[in-house]
Amino acid sequence: MTQATPKDYWISPEALYIELNAMGNPDYIQASCVSGAQILVYVTGIISYDAGHNYQRWPIQISPTVFSTHSEKYLYVAIPRTTQDGSYAQIVFPSELVDIYGINAEGTQVGSEKYYYIFLQGIISSSGDNGANNRVWSQSLSTGVLASDEAISSITKESEWYDYSTVSGLVTFLKDLTMKAGTIFLNLFARTIDVVSGGAINLAANSSINFDTNGHINLGTDSSITFKGQGAVTGLADNDTDKRAEDKIVTPAYVDNKALSRVHADTASGHIGFLDGLSSDELSVMKKGVQFGENFAEGLTGFGGKIDGDGAAQLDSLTLRSFLEVPELRFNRVSIQVGNRWRAPGGGIIDHVVIDCDENGNELYSGTAYLHLEEGEIGKVYEDDICQGIWHDGINPSENEADDYDDSKGNFKFSGFYTAYFRIDKVLSVNGGTNNAFHYSLRNDGKWKLFKHPASMMHFVCYGNFSNVDRQQSRYSTLTYERYLTEVTTWEFSERNIAAQFGDLSNLTVFGLKMDGYSAYLKNIYMSGTIKQFEAIGRKMVIDQSLNGYMAPDETETVTVQIVDGYLQDHTNEYNFKVERDTGDAASDAVWNAKPEHLNCGSVFNISFDDLHINAEHGGISTMFYVTATNGKDNAVTASIEY
User: 34 vs 28, 60, 66, 157, CA distance in Å?
Assistant: First the structure.
C-alpha cells in the first residue's frame, strides 16, 4: 500500500481540536480547526509542486462526527485531486487503513476516487462490541515534518526533548527520564507501562498498583513485579500454566474459563455431578430434556423416564391431583372432540400470525397467517376461500364465549372458545414451501360483530369460496345432526345450500321447512332396480379396530373382522381371509402382501405403526389395507381400512 508518511505533509500543531467521547457518547466526537488552518503536502510522483514550484496547500475542514460503527477509526485528510473536485481538505475517519488512493489492503476502493488520502498517523480505539467503552488515542496524531517555512517557524526550543500534540493532548518525551535520589513521583496515572527486558517493578510494604479502566502493565522478557517479602510475579496465567505455579497472576477471564461463578450466569463445558442434590429458586431450562433414573430405554418395554427437549415424555406412570387438559384424548377407543367436525376442500393448522397495523401501530382487520405443514406438504388453501376456526384464548379468558350457539346459518359459538371468520385474499409460498402462507381479511359483513384474528395452533376449515365453484362443497357434523353443503359463496348458509341433512332436522325451520325430530332431509333420491326384502340383503364385513385407527410410534392395533348377513347372524367361521397393503410403493407392498401371515391372516390380525408410511421417507402419506373374505361358493366380501 502506498501511504503518505509524516515527511510528506505538515499541519500546524495548533490547527486541529478533537474531543473524544463527546457528551458521554463513545461514538461521538467534537471537532474544529482554527481559522486559516491549512495542510501542505508533497508526495513524489503523486502530489507535486504548484505552478510556482511551491508545496501545494489546502484549507482544512473538520466537523463534529457521529461514528456509524463501533470499530477502530483512522485519522485521514481527504485532499481533492483536481480543482473540479473541490478546494478544501476534509478530515475523515475510515474504519480501516487505506492507501493514498483510498484502496484498502484487499484491493477494494473504499474512499472516493476524487480524493487523495493522507494518513495523519492517528488511530482511535474501538468503543467495544456494544459501543459502551470510551475511545482513546491508541496511536497519536502526527502533524508532519514536511520541510517548509511554516514548519520551521513553529518549532520551539522545548521540541528538542518533548513533542506535544494539541489534538490528542499527548506529550511524547524524546529523552530518558529519571528521578533525583530521595524524591518520588507522588502520582503516576498511566494507561500502559512497558518494562524493558531485565527490568522490574518493586513494591514496598503497604504499596499497590492501581489499574484504571482499560489499563495494563507490559513486562519484557525476564521481567517481574516483586512484592517485598512475598516473592515475584512474572506474568499472567494461561492455558499452559502449571496449576501449582506461584508466580502467575490469575485474571477474571482466566477464572471465568476455569471455574464456575457463584455470582453471575455461567456455562460449564463438561459434565457436573452433584453429590448432595440440586435446588433452584428460579425456572430451570433443560434444552435437550431430562432423564429420570440411572438408565433409560425407549419404548413400551423400556425402563426409566425421560422428557425430551420438545416436551415429549416417556414415563412408567403419571399421577395428577388436579385437571388434565389436552387438545385430544385417546383412551380405550374413545375419541373426544369439542366443536364441529368438517370435511371440506381446504383447511389446516396455523403456525403463527402477523397482524397488519397502520402507521400508528393500530391493528387492522387483516394479516398474514403461516401454516404448520410437514416437510414437502402443500397447503390446502385457495384465494377467496371462506374460512372458520375456533380457538381458546388462554391469555385473555374473557375473550372466549360463555355459551354454545348455532343459528343453522353457519354462525357458531362454543363455550370456552372464540370463533374466527376470515377470507383468504392471497395465497403465498415462502421459505421454500408451497402454499404455506396466506394473507387474510376478517369477516366484516355487518352480521358478525366479533372481529377475532386466527391464532397460532388454531385448526380452521375452508367451507366455501366466493368465486371458485370447485371449492364450494363441504359437510359438517355436530352433536345432533350432519349436513351436506353445496354452492357456498357467502359467510352464511341458506336453504339452497343444504343438499342433505341427517339427524335432528328441527333447525331447518329457520328456512321455512317445517320439520321436527330425527330423520333425513334430501333434495333428490335417485334409484335403479328395486328395493328387495330385508332378508335378501347380502352378507357384509364388519371391522373392529382396537385403537380406533389411531396409532403412535411403537404401537400395534388388533383388527377383528366379522361376516354377518342382513339379520346380523355371524358367518365368520365359513370364510378364509387375506389382507393386502397399498402405500403407493408397489415393490414394498408386493413384499408385504406375499408374507404368509398376510395371505392367510384369519379374522383377527395385527397392523403395527411400522406397517404404515408415516415416516421421514414418505411424509405421512395415507396407507390403505384391503381385507378380502372368500368361502369358495359365494361372492367375495371386501372392506378397506385407511390410516
Answer: 20, 9, 21, 23
